[in-house]
């Protein structure tokens, strides 16, 4: 049984989502710090070019995107469940909305000049300039577009009002009564806004939401220990990928098992990963690739939000 290895950096909101899910399930994991900016050569050795944060590694299997990471953590430990029985559809849809629409608003609000001035007050000007260029490249070529700050401010009361009403109507302390993936998907966006006094009132002005966020963040991050990126690559090199899922290979566009393809996100961070398509299931795509440092790895992607192209 291989350890869970999370490749992340402290200020990444989606990494915070993954860390909270690990804490919710009270899992032990290894922490590998990655650069917040490209290039990320050690991560690329494992993913083949996927650049978003975080990435979960289990031996020689590499899991991209927090939606798929959540499913892998469910397989690791079934209870407590991120997708409670009978609520899977509702939870998944709200999580998808939060990771796209709500996150888009959070990014616009966080990146307003007054907020960024505080966030970058103690870093060299060269880093701030490099960060702006990197994030510009991150959002280049995909379907996601930057939401204008004025529009994000205009719509924010409606979004927070909807969250307040949901929390007021539920009998439990979470969005669907009991904790679920939906809570962690919404929480990481609000955690991002809590980063400076410029944006923290956008949460604190809504008491029910602020109290709920405190409960979600209270799950913590589980039990973690540090690991170097070189050690993580060695783990992959010495491991064998797990057996493919026992599920029919189905692709509506005619892609076949064994075909050389590239897989990429469609919204942002659209850098393609090339390899051999091994599996196309209902929810998951698996690509086989070989790296001179990491050896043979299987890179896993969710079907939703990703595309396949023939090489």
From TrEMBL:
Pfam families: GST_C_2 (PF13410), GST_N_3 (PF13417). GO terms for molecular function: transferase activity. The keyword Transferase applies. Residues 2-81 form the GST N-terminal domain. Keywords: Transferase. This is Glutathione S-transferase. It comes from Ectopseudomonas toyotomiensis.
